Amino acid sequence: MRLELGRIRITDVQFGDQTRVTGGTLFINQGELKDLLEEDPDIARVELDLAKPGEDVRIIPVKDVIEPRVKVQGPGGVFPGFISKVDTVGSGRTHVLDGVAVVTTGKIVGFQEGIIDMGGPGAAYSPFSQTLNVVVKITPVEGLPQHKHEQAVRLAGLKAAAYLGNAGRELEPDQLEVYELGSYLENAAAFPGLPKVVYLYMLQSQGLLHDTYVYGVDAKKILPSLISPTEIMDGAIVSGNCVSACDKNTTYHHQNNPVIAQLFQRHGRDLCFLGVVITNENVTLADKERSSSYAAKLVKMIGAEGAIITEEGFGNPDTDLMMNCRKLEELGVKTVLITDEYAGRDGASQSLADAVPQANAVVSAGNANEMITLPPCGKVIGDLEAAEVIAGGFAGALAPDGSLRVEIQAITGSTCELGFSKLRGDGF
Amino acid sequence: MAEHKKLRVVHYLNQFFGQIGGEDMAGVAPLVKEGPVGPGLALAGALGEAGEVVATVICGDNYAGDNLEKAVPEILELIRQQKPDALVAGPAFNAGRYGIACGAVGQAAARELGIPVVTGMYQENPGVELYRKDLYIIATEDSARGMRGAIPKMAALLLKLARGEEIGSPEAEGYLPRGIRRNRFAAENGAARAVEMLVAKLKGEAFTTELPMPDFDRVPPNPPVRDLRSATIALVTSGGIVPKGNPDRIESSSASKFGKYSLEGLTDLTSDTHQTAHGGYDPVYANGDPDRVLPLDVARELEAEGVFGKLHPYHYATVGNGTSVANAARYGAAIAADLKEAGVDAVILTST
Q1: A43-51 and A57-62 strand pairing
Q2: I need a labelling partner for B51 at 20 to 30 A (CA). Which of A10, A242, B121, B321 fits?
Q3: Is A242 a catalytic residue?
Q4: Do B35 and B107 reside in the same domain of the chain?
Q5: Residue in chain A nearest B253 by alpha carbon
Q6: Based on the domain organization, do B157 and B235 belong to the same domain?
Q7: What are the tens digits of pLDDT across the range A225-240?
Q8: Which position among A242, A325, A377, A416 bears the catalytic label?
Q9: Residue A62: beta bridge partners?
Q10: Alpha carbon distance B57, B32 (integer Å)
């Protein structure tokens, strides 16, 4: 499969009469976007706001982050199964509004939504402190149950991203990246001397607001499958998660998976990137055993000698991570794991809920329990009171002056287990 | 600028390094000698103008080892009398009794005198596992051959601690990792580091994991309850079921406490009486009927039918979501002690 990713560099975002990109500025017709999102009968009201890097702005509680993209050539459309039909995506050309992110917020859905600070010390911890954020604040209709509320917010975020992405349809990209992988046989034959590597991509699927969707299918219900990395760039994987904000893989993270980017970068040089196997993180032991066995088998079947395994969430899925590692190593596939840590606020506790001796090559995305003080911000988008109930927050986290004392667990993307950020945990 | 006060350092040694004698003198009780003794001379040299070894406290290996609980307060009292600013213990190399004594004395001095402490041991010394979390232990060779290498590192780290300077990584400072995890920003993102590590692993080259795996406790299950009909059963949950309003404000994640709540007079939990404090799952079903997580209704029925003797009149609850293993173990031990005291025979432990 061959996908051209055309990046349109956006340097500013403003509200305007017409939704379009001019001279690197994205103008948004506020009324039109609001009307589109308010079509959903589960949504009572939508408010739009803008938050830019360096501003004295806090967004809380953050639900999902999505990058605006549009399919300009080739079959299917972005976010298949939600915004577009379910044709196979991942080939042709896709345009990206590079530098822009849709951020969904509003009344809290579960407990596990996050904080993005556009300035101050918190900004170092979230990748979305560096993006031009179009913040969509959603008020659901009265009495909407939580799972319906989550769905309404998820769909609104995807719709907004697709709507904005469309503004890049006719533009000439500033940069064109080409991603192409042949069939497994062709690929292996092209690089006979290089080790064959697969990416085993664990999708959060614990259920009860911990869900991920693949072409619209709830990932709980899949058997591990092969997928082209370029399909993922077109939004084939969508987050529906209320796991802790720090290690929630937002839809933006899926669209811009850094492991895929790194494997492409070193493909043909240090390794031969065969492709991606997706698997899930279900809660029952039988599911865990089945999925890890099936995933390990697929990775081995297509000829991998090495695999990167990434996790989403923590605690219960640590078991899936370790089963995947153990079973692959037992099949002779060398593994490297990316996870984060819950070592306590003092860093003195054991970091993971499960461990196997085969996990001898682990990248740590940081200790999520580490504390941070976020000084008050001039402007808050969303609902600051949420700080006391979100994961990583606690009663008393919110000081009268509006400053927050929280674990970095509460910051969106701070310890992303796809290895998106530079934060790492270290032994002292 | 204020002149740097010369640090008053006390040095703790065993009878051998304290030049009292060999194994035949291992029973010697704690004593003080003025100024540095034996390896203390090298320590004094390494401290230079910054510090002075004001006294050496010496205790026999057997005296300390045979009754640590008695010996440590005696040793600590001798140290306290010197009004020290800091303590150096050892190095003990691979000597087990000596290593444990250095660790115990160091831990007591750090806790009770609030002074910086540095010791030194070989990585396999049993004192390492016991005290690495509490103390900075400089990694040494397994015998006194390593004295020359160990002393300057111990002195340098002690001075840093005394000045309140930031302590670098174990590699940089030479101490054995204490199992403390801290965050920093790396030069490359996690994905780049992971792929780099995989390339090295595939080539058979050296690589260093960023998170060494811990040794996990495996708790063997207790034998089954012999006679259920006379047994007292308690309900304990990490699923966060608390009285409505969450009176102890147990956190939705990383719980800092557990709660003990009366079940007296209750036969059923409802959305009016109870709720979940847990932030790790959709709370709709647990809040709608808290018995789904803490099965009081069924327990009361079985109690009435005489299937078991009686239900313990309290339940215990915490939130098992992002809660550190050390805290979870602590709550578990406290709950278990309370249950044992109340004569509870068995527990139904529910999660989420």
Answers
A1: unpaired
A2: B121
A3: yes
A4: yes
A5: A391
A6: no
A7: 999 999 999 999 999 9
A8: A242
A9: A114
A10: 5
